[in-house]
Amino acid sequence: MSILLRLSPILLVLSSAFAFATSTPPTLALPQVQTTGRVLADAEGWHATWPGITLTTRFKGRAIGIVVDDPLSAYTVELDGAIRQPLAMTAESHTVWLRRLSNASHELRLTRRNETTTGTGTIRAFLLENGAWLPAKPAPRRQIEFIGDSFTAGLADLSRRRSCNAATIRNTSDATAAFGVRVARQFHASWEINAMSGMGMVRNWNGNLPGENFRTYYPRLLQSDPQSKADNANWHPQLVVIGLGINDFSTPLHDGEAWTRETLAAQFKDGYRALMADLRERYGDADIVATAVRIGPDDQQGTLVQEVVDAARAEGDQHVYYLEYAGLELTACQWHPNLADHKKMAQSLIDLLDELHPFK
């Protein structure tokens, strides 16, 4: 989690007005914004492509404005812990005001609901009317990172049918309703959701984008910028949950692809070990939970992930565990988990973590 004080000409003008319009000067001249997840913060705002990033600010006053410039993702809005009307995706920058609030201290949290791998969404600024910015609360000590594909991103988790067009998928995707955020909230932890639909550990869904895979994008702060690097010095999760492999094995190999069934399995295990080695370098002895979902009777994912975990433990890594999600309905768009499935996956993780105690 990082904290940014960003200078904005608009906010400078407003804060000057407050100094003359109120008898008590603002506690802070500019908003103090806490971020979680992979966010690029600069003078133009807070930019993101990954799902589930959050921006949190505190203030005293009866209204707050949010300058939104994100045609690709909606945002869940929480004010003092209560869910408000989401910020819809829009093609042009605009300001949304929350008004008629009590003249008291408030906390506003925005959470990006969608993933947008080829384009960046931006929150430009936060504005006040006759109010005062307040210091941020201390960041939670507990941190959880979720790594995965569309199941982890919460793709279409609000939908109720399997056949959907692209617009329906966008409008029914909500990272805050997916299992990762549910688990993080249960343990009062900050979360980071590094999830990318259609991508596999080695092979992507249906053989798409050969030469790339999830690990191509994982090091990036913004997926759309190959030069960006995720290196938040304040991010040290005690727990990492991996959910990769569905796309590697859920569709049959096609003529012309680079693998046989046997070589794909071997390279998948090699890729999994390489990702875990990267996580060990980044996060030391954090607990790693490697998860799987068996899509069909011939699905290799669960077996191979279990083998990777067993081998790691046999080599002395006692902080890696295997969890298989079972009994999923998969009735959301394109055979994705529905809300009941996400609740079930969250509970499976919660039950395991109650045994592991990763936040000692």
Topology:
Elements: E1 2-5, H1 9-21, E2 32-36, E3 40-42, E4 45-48, E5 54-61, E6 64-69, E7 75-79, E8 82-83, E9 94-98, E10 104-112, E11 121-128, E12 132-134, E13 143-148, H2 150-153, H3 166-171, H4 179-186, E14 190-195, H5 214-217, E15 239-243, H6 246-249, H7 261-283, E16 287-293, H8 301-314, E17 320-325, H9 339-356
Task: Give a verbal description of the structure.
The structure is a single chain. Helix 7 packs across helix 8 (301-314). The longest helix has 23 residues, at 261-283. The strands form three sheets. Strands 1, 2, 5, 7, 8, 10 and 12 form a seven-stranded antiparallel β-sheet that branches. A five-stranded antiparallel β-sheet has the order 3-4-11-6-9, with helices on one face. It starts with a strand and ends with a helix. It has helices spanning 9-21, 150-153, 166-171, 179-186, 214-217, 246-249, 261-283, 301-314, 339-356, and strands spanning 2-5, 32-36, 40-42, 45-48, 54-61, 64-69, 75-79, 82-83, 94-98, 104-112, 121-128, 132-134, 143-148, 190-195, 239-243, 287-293, 320-325. With 360 residues, it is of the alpha+beta class. The chain has two domains: 2-134, Jelly Rolls (Sandwich), CATH 2.60.120; 143-356, SGNH hydrolase (Rossmann fold), CATH 3.40.50. It is built from nine helices and 17 strands. 26% of the residues lie in helices and 26% in strands.
